Structure formats: C-alpha cells, structure tokens
Amino acid sequence: MKTRIFLTAVLVLTLLFTAIGMFAAAFPNEILKATQSGNASDLAANFNDKVELILPEKSGVFSKEQAQFVMKEFFDSHRPTSFQINHEGTRDNSAYGIGTYVSSNGKYRFYFLTKNVNGKTVIIQIRIDKE
Q1: Do 95 and 120 meet the contact criterion of CB atoms below 8 Å apart?
Q2: What does each C-alpha distance from 130 to 39, 56, 57, 98, 100 come to in angstroms?
Q3: CA gap 52, 59 in Å, rounded
Q4: Rounded distance between C-alpha atoms, residue 31 and residue 96, angstroms
Q5: What own/partner pairs with CB < 8 Å and gap ≥ 24 does 77-83 have?
Q6: How far apart are CA 45 and CA 64, in angstroms?
Q7: Which of 60, 73, 77, 101 suits 22 as a labelling partner, its CA being 20 to 30 A distant?
Q8: For 45-94, what is each residue's pLDDT tens digit?
C-alpha cells in the first residue's frame, strides 16, 4: 500500500514538473534575448505589421519599422543590465509575458502581448511602465 502511494506521488510530481516546464518555455526565446540585449532590430523581427507601443515617453500604433525606431530610442536611453520574464500565459490564439527590465537609470515593467499569425508568434503590443 505504501509503495502504491509513493509511486502515485512520484507520478503526480513528475507530471506537475513537466507541465510547469512546458509552461515556462512558452515565451519565445528570441523576444527574451532581444530584450535582454536591448536589440531593437532583433525584437522587431517578431513584430506584427502594426504594433501598439505604450512607453513612458511615447505611445501609439506604429508600423513595424516605426516601432523598431521607437524601441531603439528606448533601448539607447535605457541600456539593459538585466531582463527576466516573471509571468506568462496563453489564451486562445494569444499569449502574454510580463517581465522586469533593469537599466542603468531605472527599473521597468514590460508587458508583451503576442498572437500566432500563420504559425509564427508576433508581438502586437508592448507596454512599458516605470516601477
């Protein structure tokens, strides 16, 4: 009887950790790396044709090229020292990631909203709030 309980507990824990690992890997690594390095060009490779940006200095709906320029301005003014995703989730055809961005001149909360377009995850919104 004890062996059965032990094996059941091991099975449940294995499934739980597998599910957590799959969930943690859901946020696209290329978006994470581009943000960690402050690389607007690499980040823009994941933009939808139109991107809503809500930044402390500027907000609006921008073309992919314009959004890249706006993010380059942000990264140039706020060089990253670290970035990590704290929360993420999915719903239907979209996903989000919320992370902490630390720069030499402040700490920011990044919110990414993505959707799946033709099998590719694209960013449709980035919101950046100063903490």
Answers
A1: no
A2: 19, 7, 11, 13, 10
A3: 8
A4: 12
A5: 77/105, 78/38, 78/103, 78/104, 78/105, 78/106, 78/108, 79/38, 79/103, 79/104, 80/35, 80/36, 80/37, 80/38, 82/36, 83/32, 83/35, 83/36, 83/110
A6: 9
A7: 101
A8: 999 999 999 999 999 999 999 999 999 999 999 999 999 999 999 888 89
Q: What is the largest CA-CA distance in the chain?
A: 65
**Single-letter amino acid code for the residue at 109:** R
Positions of E strands within the chain: 47-54, 59-63, 80-91, 94-103, 106-117, 120-130
**What domains are defined for the chain?**
28-130 (3.10.450.50)
pTM metric for this prediction: 0.79
Distance CA 122, CA 124 (A): 6
Q: How many CB atoms lie within 10 A of CB 91?
A: 7
| Residues ≥6 apart with Cβ < 8 Å to 111 | 96, 97, 98, 125, 126, 127, 128, 129
